[in-house]
Amino acid sequence: MNETQLRDEMARLSRSLFERGYSVGSAGNISARVEDGWLITPTNSCLGTLDPARISKLDETFKHVAGDKPSKEVFLHRAFYDTRPGTGAVVHLHSTYATALSCLADINPDDCIPPLTPYVVMRVGRVKLVPYFRPGDPRSGGLIEELGGRYAAVLLANHGPVVSGKELTATVYAAEELEETAKLLVTLQGAKLRMLTAENVAELEQAFK
Ligand SMILES: [Zn+2]
């Protein structure tokens, strides 16, 4: 996919996420690797109405070189690109159910989206909770860097998910899968659950790595 096609695809997928309620107002930001740097959604932009030509372009050093001013949460994206070689896209949302989970006092910080169904294991893997910092505080990026690339996705406490992947479409699908699993977990709060077993998870990790 060339840069023009990727810009169009980013606008199309962003609008789709917005129209289905995964993002409201100017919440959420999406980035993708291009040959000579990165594309990222502009600051205060609405995912429902992105103009492909105005999507921010960053060079190899994450310096803004073209388009509108980039999202101020760019450091969340950079932390994944820096620590997970082969990352081609990052999606950050404030989607309702994943954010609801991120506000629960007693979730397991090392596995905050437990394996309720196979799909989150296949598309996202284990998800780490990153402690709360105010939006725009680069220390959240530092905490993701400290994970050393061991997690493809994190949940920012009281804020929302950040998901990385090899390319844009698959990463958007992974973020959707994370949200759907979070929805099931919130819906089932208080119910006695039958999770996938460690053997089930190991089998999935082997089959879909
Ligand atoms: Zn955010």
Description of the structure:
The chain is an alpha+beta fold. The protein contains seven helices and eight strands. α2 runs parallel beside α5 (139-146) and α3 packs across α6 (168-187). The structure holds zinc ion. Zinc ion (ZN) is lined by residues 73, 92, 94, 135, 159-160.
Topology:
Elements: H1 3-19, E1 29-34, E2 37-40, E3 56-58, E4 64-66, H2 74-83, E5 89-92, H3 96-102, H4 118-123, E6 127-130, H5 139-146, E7 153-156, E8 160-165, H6 168-187, H7 198-207
Parallel strand pairs: 6-7
Antiparallel strand pairs: 1-2, 1-5, 2-3, 3-4, 5-8, 7-8
Brief write-up:
With 209 residues, this protein is of the alpha+beta class. It has helices at residues 3-19, 74-83, 96-102, 118-123, 139-146, 168-187, 198-207, and strands at residues 29-34, 37-40, 56-58, 64-66, 89-92, 127-130, 153-156, 160-165.
Distance N to C terminus: 24 Å
Strand content: 15-25%
Number of strands: 8
- General form: globular
Radius of gyration: 16 Å
Mean pLDDT: 95
Given helix and strand content, the structural type is: alpha+beta
- The side-by-side strand order for the widest beta sheet comes to 4-3-2-1-5-8-7-6
For the structure shown, list the relevant keywords.
209 residues; alpha+beta; eight-stranded mixed beta sheet; 7 helices; globular; binds zinc ion
